[in-house]
Amino acid sequence: KLYDTPGVHLHHRQAAVIHADDLPSLAPQSRLKGRCFPANDTDVGLSGNTLFWGGLVRIDVVKALPRTRLTFYGPKKLSINMVPTTEADEFYKREVGVMLTPPTGQERAEGWCGLQGVRELQIKYEELDRPASDIAISGLGWIAVEPLGVPSSDPDSSVEEEDGDSGELHLRVHVPKPVEVFVRAPLPVGKAASQWYRYQELTEVEEELRPKWHY
């Protein structure tokens, strides 16, 4: 039998940790559209910087290629802000509840649990022309990690980056403590996905782990 359980409280989702009045900010209002950092028309690298997704997620980019890009898929009401990692702690203390929402307002910010959960992610990549993975934030959305997502005007830059890197990106993700963070294979979203997506059959190990259905 298959049971549908809408509205069940799940402690590991963002909706379980924010104030009830902030819940509408997590609800999708329209079709999801990715927001890219850095944008195509900038030369700012991500290494040494921190990105805040509202007041709910902090991503420290410890190690990345010069043209690594993160694309955020989730509620449009949550702003995305980038600051140097050395300034991130002070920025969060000052702006949570103001620029970084939810939580919304000083009163909710004072009672906020903070971003106590930390995941160290070592993301390996084998192909530079496709996303390496998605970082999924339970109850919020996901972030596509593209090793070489930002176009370059230098045709030799991708070769130099590939030869000079060990094939691994290092990110540190902060969320409220109960919220789950997990890495998965990239979802083929948007027109660009048709250029890199390839269907793959399950391996024998994956077949064994797959739930068995009995009719």
TrEMBL record:
InterPro entries to which the protein is assigned, alphabetical: NOA1, NOA1/YqeH-like_C
Pfam families to which the protein is assigned, alphabetical: YqeH-like_C
Ranges of residues in domain NOA1/YqeH-like C-terminal: 67-146
GO molecular function: GTPase activity
Segments crossing the lipid bilayer: none
PANTHER family, per the entry: NO-ASSOCIATED PROTEIN 1, CHLOROPLASTIC/MITOCHONDRIAL, NO-ASSOCIATED PROTEIN 1, CHLOROPLASTIC_MITOCHONDRIAL
Descriptive protein name: NOA1/YqeH-like C-terminal domain-containing protein
